[in-house]
Amino acid sequence: MTKSISPVLAFITPGIINMLMEERGLSLLEAAGTLYNSKLYKDLENEETKVWRFSYPILFDLLMEELETGTIVYPEEQ
Question: What are the residue ranges of helices labelled H in the chain?
Answer without folding.
Answer: 6-24, 28-36, 39-45, 56-69
